[in-house]
Automatic annotation (TrEMBL):
Highest classification ranks of the organism: Bacteria, Bacillati, Bacillota, Bacilli, Bacillales
Record key words, sorted: Cobalamin biosynthesis, Methyltransferase, S-adenosyl-L-methionine, Transferase
Protein species of origin: Lysinibacillus composti
Pfam families in the record: TP_methylase
NCBIfam families, A to Z: cobI_cbiL
Family membership: Belongs to the precorrin methyltransferase family.
Gene Ontology biological process terms, A to Z: cobalamin biosynthetic process; methylation
Pathway annotation: Cofactor biosynthesis; adenosylcobalamin biosynthesis
Name of the protein in question: Precorrin-2 C(20)-methyltransferase
Residue span(s) of domain Tetrapyrrole methylase: 6-219
Alphabetical list of PANTHER family matching this protein: COBALT-PRECORRIN-2 C(20)-METHYLTRANSFERASE
EC top class, as a word: transferase
EC number, as in UniProt: 2.1.1.130
Amino acid sequence: MHNLGKLYGLGVGPGDPELITVKAFRMLKECPVIAYPKKLRGSKSYAHRIIDVYIQPEEKEMIGLVFPMTKDEETLEREWSKSVELIYASLVKGKDVAFVTEGDPMLYSTFIHLMKLMQEKHPEIEIETVPGISSFNGSANRLGIPLADGDDHVAMIPAQDNYELMKKAIEDHDAVVFIKVAKVLDLMLELLNEMNLYDKAVVVTKVTSDEEIIWKLDELEGVELNYLSLMVVRK
């Protein structure tokens, strides 16, 4: 078992390639195998695009993994298990594998479930995570909005189709970062208008990347937001 490779979960930041850590950069160089989320149509994932400037794909073994966006448990179990076994096939040959994920590997990350499954199916595998700058941090700095000062309360919350719950989150905190806001944008706009906080919120898509878009709320009517969008509300 001492010949097994090690699995690394690398946080590669919110979008700007310069926002990866020195340690993540070193692991990208040292690991012979790079695993990354892959879109079904074969286009590069967000995490893959972030690390493009740092790797030469022909010098690495690249493992693209598909994580389907579905609630069908049978499909999820099959595809996630397939991903674990693809990575394990390299680990069992003694090769270290770096799995890259945007943001931080321990914060709303694809790597979390992958890690749990690997621990369940192959507990002998050693796993290490490398922290990354999250979109939570990236948005605050990019927008120049202090999220917390002194005794302020701040929260990071997945936006949900629940008006009262979202309202309470805003009422209970000085600042809230709502991730996954695209699917409930109309509800959030209605809520903020009712709370007279329209001028206290900003939406940003693909923060810090070269595709970044910053939206004022009055620009969002009828807009179909990208999945990688979040809303910052600072009272």
